[in-house]
Structures are given as C-alpha cells and as structure tokens.
Amino acid sequence: MHVCGRTDGQEDTRSRPESSHIVWVCCGPISLPDSVHMFLREEDRRTLVCKCESLPLSHALTLAVRTSGPGGTMASVSSLADEVSCPICQGTLREPVTVDCGHNYCRACLTRYCEIPGPDPNEPLHCPLCKEPFRLGGFRPNWQLASVVENIERLTLVSTLGSDQEDVCQEHGEKIYFFCEDDEAQLCVVCREAQEHQAHTVRFLDEAAGPYREQIQKCLECLRREREEIQRIQSRENQRIQVLLCQVATKRQKVIFEFAHLSQFLEEQQSVLLAELEKLDGDILKQRDVFDALVSEEICRFSTLVAELEEKLEMPARELLTGVRSTLIRSETRKCRKPEAVSQELGQRIRDFPQRVLPLRREVTTFLEKLCFELDYEPAPISLDPQTSHPKLLLSEDHRRAQFSYKWQNSPDNSQRFDRATCVLAHGGFTEGRHTWMVMVDLAHGGSCTVGVVREDVKRKGELKLRPEEGVWAVRLAWGFVSALGSFPMRLALQEQPRQVRVTLDYEVGWVTFVNAVSQEPIYTFTTSFTQKVFPFFGLWGRGSSFSLSP
Fold first, then answer.
1. Domain hosting residue 390, numbered range
2. What whole-number distance in Å separates Cα of residue 98 and Cα of residue 110?
3. 3-class DSSP state for residue 72?
4. By C-alpha distance, which of 168, 232, 240, 180 is closest to 204?
5. Is the N or the C terminus of the chain less surrounded, counting Cβ atoms within 10 Å?
6. CB 380: neighbour CB atoms within 10 A?
7. pTM for the full predicted model
C-alpha cells in the first residue's frame, strides 16, 4: 500500500488518462467535483476515504445517484446531466474547457463565441454567464469534467434501459448495476459495498455479461447444429416413412388384386366342378331308372313262375302230373338277369373326380407362392441408363425400352459406355435388399436378348465375356431356346419359351433368380456372394430384337 504524500483535498492534475477513471487521491475524504459531491449523502461522504487507490468515477457517480426509493435513480441521473450541460448550446458538454472564472463550455461553442466580432476589437472577452473577462487563450481542457460527462451519459443509458421494477434490488430498492462473479448475484450499490462482496470479483452488468454472451453464443451454435441434425434425421426418417407407406399401399393393392383374381378363379372352378357333379348326379339317376325298370321286369317274370308252381303244387296227383315235366324244365332253365345299378364307366368317373381338384390345389399353391414372393420382394422401378448404352441400341424417350439397330447412334464416348458388347445398364444399382423387375422380350424377327445383373466394375471397353467370373449373372433368350450363362453356357429344358421374364435379386443371400412371369415356371438361379454394387443388365443382338421394362 502506498503513502499518499498529498495534503487533504489536493487534486490529481495529471493529463487525461486513457481509461474513463479519475483518481482523487488525498489523505482524507475523497474530493469530488461539486456537481457530484452535492448529491452524496453524509454517510457516503464518510465512507469514501482515500487508500491511495483508483476509484472508478462511474462508481462514485453511482454512489451519487443513490436515493431512498427505486424511482429516484432516473431523476438523480437527470439532475447530474443538467449539471454538465453547456450554457451556450444547452446540450451535454463536448470536449469541455474551463475559462478563468471557472465556468465550463464546449470547446466548439466557446471557439465560435470568441470568433464573434464585438463593437470594440480591443475589448477583452467576457464569460457568457458571469461576464468576467478572460484571455483568448486562457481556457484550458477539463479532463475530469469530460470523464464525468462520459460516465453520466453511461449511467443515463443504463437507467433508461433498465428502469423496470425487475431491475431494482429487492432488498434495498436500488437500481442494479453490478454482478458478483463469485456468488453469481446481481448487486445494487449498497450490495456492492457490503462486506460479503468486498473480496469478490464484481463487474458492471454489461462487462460481466460479455463472457457469458460468448459462452451462450457457442452453446447456441452447438444447439443449433444439434437441432439441424435432428431436423435432418426427421426429414430423412419422414422420407423413409413415406417410402414405407407407399410400399404398404402397393402391397395392399397387390393383395386386393391377387385375391380378387384368385376369388374369380375359384368361383369359376367352383362352377365347373359343381357342373360336373351335377352331371354325375343326373347320370346316376338315369342309370337308376334303367336299373329299376329291369329289376321290376325280372321280379314280375319270376313272380309269375312262382305263382304257377305254387298252383301246381296244390293240384291233385292226376292234375299235377299233367305237363309237369315241361313246367319244371321251363322253371329250371329260367335264369335271373343281374343288372348293375351304376355302370363301371360312371363309377370310374366318380372315383376320378378328386383328381379334378388337384390342378386347383396346384393353382392355389402357385398363387400363395407368387403372393408371398411379390410381398417379400420390392418391385424395382428401374430405367435404362443412356450413358452406358452401346451406340447400336435405340432407347425410348422414357428409357424403358431398347431396340437393336445396325445403325450406330451419335452417342459420345465415355468411361461408362459399352463399346463392343451391345449392352446397357439400368440406373441406380443395388447394395442391399430384395428386388424384382419384369422384362418383356420381343424376338419375333430373330436375334437374342440377355437379361441379368452385373457388378459395378464390369468391363465396359473391349470384349465382354458373359460369365460369373467376369461379374455377369445372366440368361440368354434366343429364338427357340434359353441358355444360362454360367462358366460354360448351358441350354435349359423349359416347357415353353418365356416372353416375360421376372428377375429377382436377393443381395444379402446372393441369389439371382429368373422365372417365366406368365407360367411361373422357374428358369434358372445363380448363387454367389456380392461384395459391391450390382446393376440390372440387358443385351440385344439381331435386327428387330427388343425388350421393354414392365411397369
């Protein structure tokens, strides 16, 4: 701690400091300008004792504007502002200067006042307030007053912005100006001077809020990033939900359609089977009528013979012996006919009837397998990629149909385009999941069509060998036969030539399956292990050969 060395009331007359602090150093009560000192209470004057330390002038002014109630701060600051107004312009002092008599003016105002010519050029200048003469160069800058003006303006701004009741100390009713870093408490002037905060770090509200604003800004940026991430997740998941809803809607329509088709088929089959049963019923009744007629005739004939013999038996001996031999011969030679109520052919038809239900059972089994398959595999809405198409392939505008042509198209070469193999890939590709798509093949004029999948790194330039070792899993449909393009091409024995081929891909299991989409006859299945993206693959050769992708 320094020793002051100044007499009581001596004022520091150093040049204006860089900061907005004024040092009033003395060995006794701190000396303040009259404009500030007049607002201090007696107890405040007694507490301000010099310790040879710097006292922020804003602190002194804060003490000066203390009142007994929460509404007095604004009035006190306003009174202070009136004390530091320029008598010439009536505004707040700007660059205040003091003349010999002690009055203060704005430098610019006083300079303009001195430039006004008087009636006598030799007459000295007079103070506009007290008319005391002063020399032209006799005014000097008042740095202390300039600092007072600066801090009064600051307090005026604080008072204006924070004049609500919530900015008032609940304990003392004073305006809150400070923040205690240690206790994280907002303080008024009285709280600031309390013993409990003497050793604490206390700052003005704006000064204390600065670091916290930076922390809040960083936290806000972090939270905004998190919010954006959540919004991205929400958007992505909403899109996924929409895709799933579309898939469910598609499956619902498929179930409705397939069951309606099955219901119609079952009704037709029911009508056919019932008609056959009705015919069997009629045939049985017809044969029953014939049988009943024959049996009745035989019963009548035998009843006549029985009656004749019974009558003969009751006759006397002479009458019994008359013609007895012929009667016995006629009765003994009369044989009973044994007709069948139901013919063997009709009985066989009845026994064979359950066989008529077997195709129906197979049809229902096929329906269930097809339905399970279509619900399990997601239809892939694929389209052809013109960037990969060989120049001899003509693609439709919607990129869902291709036709072979011996005329080369004006297609710019690129790394993705096939230059030797007349092939084309589909857009997109797959890296997971189960997918299926339909290909309708038209080979009415000959030629061949290749359908399958290929790896992303399949050879595009030069000769392409269509086999699994080269990343190609496909079948070739030609005029009259179908071949599986394995390590060695293998001609397949099929019941009919496919015109619509359904290709199914199970990426995780590693299956590529080909089925006749019309008859549901299996064509061929490749088994492999996929390690990269695969694309639907198509090839054509021969004039007029074409294919199209079923919607």
1. 378-549
2. 10
3. helix
4. 180
5. N
6. 19
7. 0.43
Contact 132, 101 (CB under 8 A): yes
How is residue 354 annotated by DSSP? G
Task: Using alpha carbons only, give the angle 210, 214, 220 rounded to the nearest 5 degrees.
Answer: 135
Is 441 inside any structural domain?
yes
Quick check: is 204 in a domain?
no
Strand order in the sheet with 104-106: 104-106, 96-98, 140-141
What digits encode the pLDDT tens for the residues 305-350?
888 888 888 888 878 888 888 878 877 766 767 777 888 888 888 8
Residues 6+ apart with CB under 8 A from 46: 29
Q: Whose CA is closest to 551, among 301, 342, 367, 383? A: 383
Domains in the chain, number: 2
DSSP 114-153: HHS--SSTTSPEE-TTT--EE-TT--EE-HHHHHHHHHHH
> Does residue 444 belong to any structural domain of this protein?
yes
Q: What gap in Å lies between CA 312 and CA 146, rounded to an integer? A: 170
Q: Is the dihedral of CA 157, 160, 164, 168 positive or negative?
A: positive
CATH number of the domain where residue 515 is located? 2.60.120.920
Residues 427, 294: one domain?
A: no
Q: Which residues in the chain come in under a pLDDT of 50?
A: 1-71
Structure tokens at 66: 């203390």
